[in-house]
Amino acid sequence: MKIIKKSLMSLLLTTASLVLLAACSRPEVKDVSKDKVTINVVAPDGLPAMAMAKLIKENTQVDGYESMDIKYSVEKSSDALVTAVLKKEPDIAIVPSNVAATAYNKTKGEYKIAGTTGTGSFYLVSTEELKKLEDIKGKTVVAMGKGLTPDLITQGLLKNMGVNGQTEVNFSYVNSPNEIIPIIATGKETTAIIPEPALTGLIATKPQVKVIASLNEQWMKIFNTTFGYPQATIIVKSELLKEHKDFIEGFLSETEEGIKWDYNNKEEFGQYCEDIGLSAKKEVLIKSLERSNLKYTGIKDSVEEYKNYFKILSELDAKTIGGQMPDEEIYMD
Does any domain span residue 5? Predict the structure, then answer.
């Protein structure tokens, strides 16, 4: 009987010791709800917000990072977006690629380039029988923003084709793509350089409009690049990247999958775009996917495209990239 009691006591002590040991060796579970960090992600209305439609609509978070609370927003004004970035307000933003360089130069490296959500989506269109980009020599062409990136891309292409865009083409500049639509639709002018999704809206309004050339394809041929020029760029705060690189990589993975989803679920994509308040009509946005060139490409696979793009812009007008070529530190490791 004493032997049984001793054995029972020994068993209980052993069990208690194991429980105590397990409790001591178990990693501490941190209450992340007390340490929530808000990550502000901003995309402008148009193609960048289209690329992010699934993430914005579904309020996508990164699995395993419950402490990181992503807040998505769509910015209607490109000027307001640039101002916010230069004030270092968003943690992650999708911006025109030249703005990525400007932000890096003006904020002393506050932001780094993580990748692109799409390559060039500007097209030469006309109701005239033009054959190629060079055919605009001697003509009036409606275009966006004198001295801004779309204009510089066009000027750079023309220069390499032997056409002086400053003296041999009469560019009539407007402030936004939507201003181009009525000018061409009413016949006031016949030829324009216009991006998606405005292009699809123009063709829906006036079916006689023909797509003459893709500026992105022209860029690929002339400058011998793989993807063309990076039109929209994901920038990330350097400090956020330094402290939470795995989180950023998870976010970029979600972005890539979200863009693939756009093309595989077009009807739902259109509804999502409408739900998050994009300006263009759902039907136009769905149709515009054909020429929008939305595709996530990480910086490791696109760094040479960026270097080439910034070099050409700097030669045309260094002010468009913040006054100088950005150094290698602009690119996410």
Answer: no
Q: Is the pLDDT of residue 195 over 70?
A: yes
CB 112 within 8 A of CB 161: no
Neighbours of 195 (CB within 10 A): 21
Residue 93 in contact with residue 85, Cβ under 8 Å? yes
Which amino acid would we find at residue 234?
Answer: I
Residues 111 and 192 placed together within one structural domain of the fold: no
pLDDT at 23 over 70: no
Q: Note the pLDDT of residue 148.
A: 80
Q: Quick check: is 142 in a domain?
A: yes
Q: Is the separation of the CB atoms in 112 and 248 below 8 Å?
A: no
Q: Which of 60, 67, 61 is nearest to 29 (CA)?
A: 67
Strand partners, 91: none
Which pair of tokens denotes residue 106?
A: 């003006």
Copy the structure tokens of residue 261.
């989803």
Helices (H), 87-196: 97-106, 149-160, 177-185
Co-location of 113 and 258 in the same domain: yes
Give me 157's structure tokens.
């292409």
122 close to 230: Cβ distance less than 8 angstroms: no
| Count: domains in the chain | 2
19: in domain: no
Nearest residue to 279 via CA among 189, 179, 192, 210: 179
What is d(CA 180, CA 189) in angstroms, rounded to the nearest whole number? 9
Q: List, as own/partner pairs, every contact residues 101-105 make where C-beta atoms lie below 8 angstroms and the sequence separation is at least 24, other chains included.
A: 101/310, 101/313, 101/321, 101/322, 101/325, 101/326, 101/330, 102/320, 102/321, 102/322, 103/235, 103/322, 104/235, 104/322, 104/326, 104/330, 105/321, 105/322, 105/323, 105/324, 105/326
Report the mean per-residue pLDDT for the chain. 90
Q: Are 179 and 93 in contact (CB under 8 A)?
A: no
| Token couple for 49 | 């917000």
Does 278 map to a domain?
yes
Residue 228: band (very low, low, confident or very high) from pLDDT cuts 50, 70, 90: very high
pTM of the model: 0.87
